Amino acid sequence: MIFYYFLAALACWFGFQSLLSGIRFAAYVRRETSRPIPEFHPFVSVIAPGRGLEPGLAENLRPLLTQNYPRYEVLFVFDAADDAAIKVVEQLRASSNVATKIVISGPATDSGQKVHNLRVAVTQIDPRCEVLVFVDTDARPGHKWLAQLVAPLADEMLGASSGYRWFVPVRGGLASRLRSVWNASITSALGHDATKNFCWGGSTAIRRTTFERVSVSEHWRGAVSDDFTITRVLKQANLPIHFTPNCLVPSVSDCDGKELLEFTTRQIQITRLYAPHLWLPLLLGSSLFTIAFFGGFILLIL
Fold this sequence. Notes:
Layout: H1 2-33, E1 44-49, H2 57-61, E2 72-78, H3 85-93, E3 99-104, H4 113-121, E4 131-135, H5 145-150, E5 160-168, H6 174-187, E6 203-207, H7 208-213, H8 216-220, H9 226-236, E7 241-252, H10 257-274, H11 276-301
Parallel strand pairs: 1-2, 1-4, 2-3, 5-7
Antiparallel strand pairs: 4-6, 5-6
Helix pairs in contact: 1-11, 6-10, 10-11
């Protein structure tokens, strides 16, 4: 019993620290969202890798072509020319004045397919490009998203500016809500300490000069995670990553239990591979909470 009480006390202490972290995160969000956006509007190349049709795809892609931003292009990247999503892109671009390009990357050979798509796309950008922006097709950004994401890069000392996702269930259901809560707990790990932030591939902006100087494309060779690789390269170069709360974008979708398990397992495996310094504390903290929580039920029953 004494050992259990010791574990329970530790779990309570970690929980209190987590609460303080959440309070600091909320304060950071209020401070950042009330700050005026710098007037910084370089030419931007937005790269959106995709594959296949998914629910709400047109609603997700349409905002990319209606951004409140003066000069930018959008590159939609697919690994095959017969991808069904290309028809959706063609319909949207027909009614837009934004410069767009469809890039066919072909199958990956020495990296994950998404990483391969990005490596091919960066070779097709407009020569005027000053900032590269990466976005996922399951994200649904607002019309000021691009301006808000790029604005922090007015500070040339920054390595990158990044948002994050917020899963929004459509029909609800236990699995969809669990995924939303599980993902939301990671969001509060971001904040004012730029050295601890990370890039999310669904909403990241980086200066082209920085991208080329730290050789991100070369580091992508053989990688399976685009965002963790960028994060690692920037940290090795001592370049801070700014978390932009205005770019906390919704990802509107549902999932079942199998998809939830696949998603969480994949995220944990990628974290273990690319960020073991984060994975181990999370493993220990989660294990401690689980032992204290279910151990309490067992003791009550006994």
